[in-house]
Amino acid sequence: MMHDIDSAPAKKGIRSDQFSGFILLALALGVGWLNLEYPLGSLREPGPGFMPLLLAIFIGAMGLLIALWGGKSDPLAAIEWPEAKRALVIMAGCIVVSFALEPLGYRITIFAFLIFFLGVLERRRPLPAFLVSLGFSLISFYVIGDLLQVPLPRSPWGF
Amino acid sequence: MVETFNNLMLGFSVALSPEILVYAFAGCIIGTLVGMMPGLGPLAGISLLLPATFGLNPIVAIVLLSGVYYGAMYGGSTTSILMRIPGEAASVMTCIDGYAMTQKGRAGPALAIAAIGSFFAGTVGVIGLMLLAPTLAEFALRFGPPEYTALLMMGLFILAYMSGGSMLKTLAMAGLGLMIGMIGIDIMSGYTRFSFGLVELGDGVGIVPVAVGLFGISEILLTAGKGEMPDVQKPKLRDLIPSREEFRLSVGPIGRGSLLGFLIGIIPGSAHIISSFVSYGIERRMSKHPERFGNGAIEGVAGPESANNAAASGAFVPMLALGIPTSPVTAVMIAAIMVHGISPGPLLIQEQPELFWGFVASMYVGNVVLLVLNLPMVGVFVNLLRIPYAYLYPCVLAFCILGTYSVTNSMIDVWIMLVMGGLGYVLRKFDFDLAPVALGLVLAPMLELSLRQSLAMSGGDYGIFFERPIATTMLGLGVVLFLFSIKPLIFKTKDWRADVGLDEAKG
After folding, report:
1. Which secondary structure element, helix H or strand E, spans residue B184, and what is its range?
2. ipTM of the shown complex
3. Between B165 and B96, residue with greater pLDDT
4. Which of A145, B328, B370, B476 could, after both became Cys, cross-link B438 (CB 3.0–4.6 A)?
5. Interface with B, mutate which of A7, A55, A66, A69 (most B CBs under 10 A)
6. Range of the domain at B73
7. What sign has the CA pseudo-torsion B199, B205, B206, B212?
8. pTM exceeds cut of 0.80
9. Which residues on chain A are in Cβ contact (under 8 Å) with B409?
10. Is B440 exposed, middle or buried (0-12, 13-18, 19+ CB in 10 A)?
């Protein structure tokens, strides 16, 4: 926390709030640059670029203040990422699903997704993993797609 | 008063119809389950259920979603008390003394007091909503674009002042949300902004993919690789009755928590979370034996649980009376109503009395349903907690993808959800509050439109905000709160968060 003066050991190196503050500043500069494409208009008649510019200045100012006041925050290196590897695998699995959902249909994609997570990533026993994956993909399709009539993607084979 | 009574009767005639009762019941059950599941808070639960409400009539839709909302508030307390796992963020404070009571064999009374407190607070909240919302809506009929601009600005300053974490970080996140809200077609000029050539972004970024990503996916990423759930106690019905002393100690905290929660609920931000922290801090401060807190003090369960439920009702006041969401949950609910062509705002109560009063009455009904349902069935509900997390989180992920995709049947929304999930994961590592992002996203179009309309009205003269008494008062109040917010930063003093123990609890 920013105000936590005593608990943060005095180590050298960039602090977490300094880092996040500068990232926000960089984001604001990026938005400001992209915003050059849109007319700013005038104070009397603001254009489409007016509000984004105000917001970019605001975010940049906040980023700068966070960085300036961030000298007493925890060191950047103190932030631990023990779950990051697994989180990346989870994200990768979700990205694959996002590409497969429309071509393969909901039931096949979600079945394969759950088999991967339960069988490969979590190393669950094959039979329960298979039954949960099959049951979830079929029942959720039936409830959401058929009963609640939410249109869900089907495979080219109609399944 | 007679008019209010007649309106309420109209509401009950709607709420007690079999169809509404069934959906209120279903919403409460789904909400309880959602609240108990780590990784699925009320916001993610409501967002995922949103597409299923498109085919329903608007009254049924809002009754179902609000049932999920306050059901999740109840459900969150169960895991906090029995397992020291807050099902959702508002239940963090309940963990402390609730779990200590469980360790002392008093899980039943803790659950009962949490349920009774939530019921009382929910009822107080509904009465407050019933009395306050129509008055506020009548007042808001005087609002023009300058007043709405001032109101939204004031809301953002209050959000910064009342946020659980750093004020600068909260404002930066609100700015980020507003910036995301700039994506899409500018309705005044027709320009498509920041769409990177993607036609689907022309309509802007929806609240559902952002909310599910920031709150649902990021939670799963943070808890990835978590071990099995610990053993869970299964209290029997006869164990639920609190002692006379426990009742006596709980009365004050329930009353105070209800009033405090409702008032905090009206203002923007993560009100239900903040209210539970503030209530805990106040109860600890008021107690003759503060050393009992942390070791199983029933006041530490009664106060925060009442406060977070009352705050859930309070959040509906600005949503229904002004059409302004003060939390991501109410933002999603506004989306649910707007799908049906109804705009929440000052005219809603006059134009759609069945919707407003039916909703108010259904909240009474929902509170009774939750009390009747949850206490006797707590043994059934805790079975859900026996499902290994390794099985639970892939299914939650699949639900997130399914729910987000089905809102607009667009894969772009799923990608936005994943980007927001990754962003939320990193931001939480850096101790940023995510609620202002979702709130900023929803407020962005309203703020931009009202600001530009105000300037068009005044011919570019910013003095318009200082010539109209209501707008001036709101802006003045916002500036005063902003000055209060920056005072601890400049003078290195402690602010209200330290007084109620919010810093230490979050840190």
Report:
1. strand B184-185
2. 0.90
3. B96
4. B328
5. A55
6. 2-506
7. positive
8. yes
9. 151
10. buried
